[in-house]
Amino acid sequence: MAELGNGKKQASPEEVHPRKAFGWAAKDKSGVLSPFAFSRRNTGADDVTIKILYCGICHSDLHTAKNEWSNAIYPMVPGHEIVGVVTEVGQNVQNFKVGEKVGVGCIVNSCLSCQNCNRDYENYCPRIILTYNSLDVDGTMTYGGYSNMVVVNQHFVIRFPENLPLDKGAPLLCAGITVYSPLKEHGLDVPGKHLGVVGLGGLGHVAVKFGKAFGMKVTVISTSLKKEKEAIERLGADAFLVSSNAEQMQAAMGTMDGIINTVSADHSIAPLAFLLKTHGKMIMVGAPEKPLQLPIFSLILGGKTLAGSCIGGIKATQEMIDFAAKNNITADIELIPISYLNEAMERLTKADVRYRFVIDIGNSLTEA
Ligand code: NAP
Ligand code: ZN
Predict the structure, then answer these.
(1) Does residue 6 surpass a pLDDT of 90?
(2) What are the residue ranges of helices labelled H in the chain?
(3) Which residue owns the Cα nearest ligand 1 atom 30?
(4) Half-sphere exposure of 212 (CA within 13 A, CB side)
(5) What SUPFAM superfamilies does the record tag this protein with (predicted)?
(6) How far apart are CA 148 and CA 170, in angstroms?
(7) Whose CA is nearest to atom 1 of ligand 1?
C-alpha cells in the first residue's frame, strides 16, 4: 500500500486487482521504458481475458510516453495494437471462445448508450476509455499491450480471421483503422480517385495499401527520398513526391481528390493543400505535439476542406480487419524482442522504421 498525504492508503498497481500481470512501463517524461509489475482484474461476466502475443508500437505510444500531449499519467504501460489468444471468457460471452485469436485496439470501454455509441462511433463517446493512460470504470488505471495479458469487455474485442497473420496484422488495430475509417467516411474509397498519403510511416504505409485495394491512384508525399523505391515497388504506390522538392510539388498541384495526412511532427500544410483539386479534402490524423500553422488561403482558394479523424468505431474496426484479411493487407513490420523497446522508440522518433515495430511479446516478455 502507498501512503497518501491525507493519511489514507492507496493500493499500488501490483495490489489493486487480484491477478498478477507484468509488462514494460514509462515511469516519467523521458519516455524510457523498463520492466513493471502490476495487476489485472478478474474476468467479469462480459469480459474476455487475452494472453498477449504481439503488440505494435504506434507513434502515439511515443507521444504519450514522453508526455508530448501533456496528458501522461505514470507509470504508463503503452500499447494499443494488441493481438493474442483468448484464455478465459465471462458467463455472458457467447461470441468468443478460449483458444481463439483476437485483437484489441485503442478503445477498451465506452458508455454504449450515447448518440455516438448508438451510431457505432464509440471512438467519439464522451466517456471513452482508452486502452492505456485512461481511468477505467472502477477508477483504476488502464494499462496497454506492452504486457503479458489483458482483460477487456467483449464489445471491444476484435475477431482475427484465420488467414490474417497475428504479428503483421497487429498494427491494423490502430494504424489500419485510423486510415481506413476516414477514407470510407469521406468517400475516398472510390476506384479511380486520386489519394495523397503524407508521411510514409506506420499509418501512411497501410493507407497506401488500403487506397490501392480500393482501386485508387495513390501518391506518397514524403520527406525521405530513400523511401521512394520501396513505396512504389513494394507498397504499390503509383507516384512519389518529396515534399521539399518545389518542382515536383508544383507539377502535382490541383491533382488530388483527397489527402490523408499522417505526419507526427511540425510541418507546412499549405503546400499540401495546394495539391488538392477544387473541393478536395485533407484529413488530418497525425497528431504533432505543437499546433500547426494554417495559412487560410490554401483552403479558401479551391473551396477545400480540412478534416480531422480519430481511430474508428468497433464495427468499422472489425470490417477493416475482415477487408484486410480478404485483400491480403498486412503491415510491413520489424519484429523485435521487448529488450529492444527503447532503441525502437529512439528509431521511431527519427522515422527510421520500415514501417512498424511489433513487439514479440509471447517469445520475449518475461516477468520482472
Ligand atoms: P510514424 O510511423 O512515426 O510515421 C510518421 C511519418 O511522418 C514518418 O514516417 C515521416 O514520414 C513523417 N514525418 C516525421 N517527421 C516529420 C517532419 N518533421 N516533417 C514531415 N514529415 C515527417 O508514426 P505513425 O505511428 O504512423 O503515427 C503518425 C501520427 O499519427 C502520430 O502523430 C500519431 O500519434 C498519430 N496517430 C493518430 C491517430 C488518430 O486517431 N488520429 C491514430 C494513430 C496515430 P516520411 O519519412 O515519409 O516523411
Ligand atoms: Zn495508435
Answers:
(1) no
(2) 59-65, 115-118, 166-169, 175-185, 202-213, 228-233, 246-251, 270-273, 297-300, 314-326, 341-349, 361-364
(3) 286
(4) 21
(5) GroES-like, NAD(P)-binding Rossmann-fold domains
(6) 15
(7) 201
Q: Which atom of ligand 1 is nearest to the CA of 355?
A: 2
Instruction: Tell whether the model's pLDDT for residue 334 goes beyond 80.
Output: yes
Q: Kindly list the protein residues that place their beta carbon closer than 5 angstroms to ligand 2, a single-atom ion.
A: 58, 60, 174
pLDDT, one tens digit per residue, over 89-136 is: 999 999 999 999 999 999 999 999 999 999 999 999 999 999 999 999
Residue ranges of domains in the chain, CATH in brackets:
19-174+331-360 (3.90.180.10), 175-308 (3.40.50.720)
227 Cβ inside 6 Å of ligand 1: yes
- The CA-atom distances, in angstroms, between 62 and each of 58, 69, 106 are 7, 10, 14
Amino acid at 306: L
Cβ–ligand 1 contact at 202 (below 6 Å): yes
Q: d(Cα 228, Cα 287) in Å, to the nearest integer?
A: 24
Q: What is the pLDDT of residue 4?
A: 46
Quick check: pTM over 0.85? Answer: yes
Nearest atom (ligand 1) to Cα of 266: 18
Check if 262 has its Cβ closer than 6 Å to any atom of ligand 1: yes
Nearest to 310, CA basis, from 185, 189, 212: 185
User: What's the whole-number mean pLDDT along residues 312-337?
Assistant: 98
Kindly state if the Cβ of 347 falls inside 6 Å of ligand 1.
Answer: no
251 alpha carbon – ligand 2 mean position (Å): 33
pLDDT at residue 204 greater than cutoff 80? yes
In this structure, which residue's CA is closest to atom 23 in ligand 1? Answer: 59
